[in-house]
From TrEMBL:
Name the record gives this protein: Fucosyltransferase
Bilayer topology annotation: Single-pass type II membrane protein
Catalytic activity field: an alpha-Neu5Ac-(2->3)-beta-D-Gal-(1->4)-beta-D-GlcNAc-(1->3)-beta-D-Gal-(1->4)-beta-D-GlcNAc derivative + GDP-beta-L-fucose = an alpha-Neu5Ac-(2->3)-beta-D-Gal-(1->4)-beta-D-GlcNAc-(1->3)-beta-D-Gal-(1->4)-[alpha-L-Fuc-(1->3)]-beta-D-GlcNAc derivative + GDP + H(+); an alpha-L-Fuc-(1->2)-beta-D-Gal-(1->4)-beta-D-GlcNAc derivative + GDP-beta-L-fucose = an alpha-L-Fuc-(1->2)-beta-D-Gal-(1->4)-[alpha-L-Fuc-(1->3)]-beta-D-GlcNAc derivative + GDP + H(+); alpha-N-glycoloylneuraminosyl-(2->3)-beta-D-galactosyl-(1->4)-N-acetyl-beta-D-glucosaminyl-(1->3)-beta-D-galactosyl-(1->4)-N-acetyl-beta-D-glucosaminyl-(1->3)-beta-D-galactosyl-(1->4)-beta-D-glucosyl-(1<->1')-ceramide + GDP-beta-L-fucose = alpha-N-glycoloylneuraminosyl-(2->3)-beta-D-galactosyl-(1->4)-N-acetyl-beta-D-glucosaminyl-(1->3)-beta-D-galactosyl-(1->4)-[alpha-L-fucosyl-(1->3)]-N-acetyl-beta-D-glucosaminyl-(1->3)-beta-D-galactosyl-(1->4)-beta-D-glucosyl-(1<->1')-ceramide + GDP + H(+); a neolactoside nLc4Cer + GDP-beta-L-fucose = a neolactoside III(3)-alpha-Fuc-nLc4Cer + GDP + H(+)
Entry keyword set: Disulfide bond, Glycoprotein, Glycosyltransferase, Golgi apparatus, Lipid metabolism, Membrane, Signal-anchor, Transferase, Transmembrane, Transmembrane helix
Any one Gene Ontology BP term: lipid metabolic process
Pfam families: Glyco_tran_10_N, Glyco_transf_10
Domain of life: Eukaryota
Amino acid sequence: MQSNWNCLHFIIFISVFLLVLFTYYTSDISVPTFAFCTTSQKKSNCSCDDPNTVVLIWTWPFGQRHDLSCRVFNITRCLLTDNRTLYHQAHGVLFHHRDINGNLDGFPNEPRPWFQKWVWWNMESPAHSSQIPALNHLFNLTCNYRYDSNIPVPYGYLVPVMSQDEVFKVPAKDKLVCWIVSNWRAHYERVQYYDKLKNYINVRAYGSPFGHHLTDQDYTTIISSCKFYLSFENSVYKDYITEKLYNPMRLGSVPVVLGPPRENYEDHIPGDAFIHVNDFASPKELAERLIYLDRNPDEYMNYFNWRNRFKVVNSWFGHEHACRTCSYLQRNRGYHVFHNLNKWYWG
Ligand SMILES: *[C@@H]1O[C@H](CO)[C@@H](O)[C@H](O)[C@H]1NC(C)=O
Ligand SMILES: *[C@@H]1O[C@H](CO)[C@@H](O)[C@H](O)[C@H]1NC(C)=O
Ligand SMILES: *[C@@H]1O[C@H](CO)[C@@H](O)[C@H](O)[C@H]1NC(C)=O
Ligand SMILES: *[C@@H]1O[C@H](CO)[C@@H](O)[C@H](O)[C@H]1NC(C)=O
């Protein structure tokens, strides 16, 4: 009887102690939930398919919304959201450079949770992105077309052809050299090159500077019906190789590139898949080569050899950046800061 009484005392004492402890103790750090369940999933059971990583899209890039599922990239367990009430749970927050208004006014007001990474993302070249001093030491990660960013997302990439893919056939051609351009500035290197090249070869130029408005269908039809397409970038920077290259490759035209050096292109695509303007001493010599290839179909066809092995995938603006960011965060949970963004990007 006596020992039962002692035991009861002990239990009461322990209960009071635990009650006091849980009432007054609150942890000063919050631990992220790496198995994040949405309410609907909680009703059933949490399984290994549940999101373990939350990526908050702070602003839609150029106001364009995109799909929030990462299935198309075979990336799973991601919760992409634009709902800022999830800020405190987010493992990553994506900030699109061109939607930042020159200062930190539009940024989160709340302190950054200790596990959260801020991701700077941008697909425009330095010449078309303004440098913002306040951003210099703010971010943890970069997501950009550059291969040396933390989460590289090039404009396009090559993947192996599969047995179920349609066999590639070069589309019928009725034009020699084509160029579609919208952004025309006299000082652009590409404009100056075109002005010389057109003296030696007929270039069919389209787009707003030439008084055309092209639909997506026109764009596809024009490019595939040209033997060569001028893949001239608006500015010349390392890895700045855009859909101006990947679209003609995909549509069956041979790209003539103006952009970073040949070696840099060869980091992205096979060396026999394109013609580089720097391979020639002058626009006149380039024109002579294109005319030669027009008359020698066997040699021309060699520019499509890569199609036996690879096909082009264009990346999905915004959607792919958010999903690749989620995948990166799943694989890299640790501490990471990115110092000196401005020096890295604008030099
Ligand atoms: C629990 O999860 C398993 C595996 O994902 C699934 O087969 C089962 O149907 C789930 N149960 C309920 C009640 O949703
Ligand atoms: C995703 O995986 C499936 C099956 O493994 C495959 O058929 C598909 O091509 C993959 N998609 C991508 C985008 O990798
Ligand atoms: C954002 O999330 C909160 C909390 O989950 C929810 O109550 C709210 O309805 C959501 N807002 C929108 C616009 O989806
Ligand atoms: C993210 O970067 C900020 C600013 O450099 C830093 O204070 C913070 O600790 C970093 N967080 C993580 C999770 O690396």
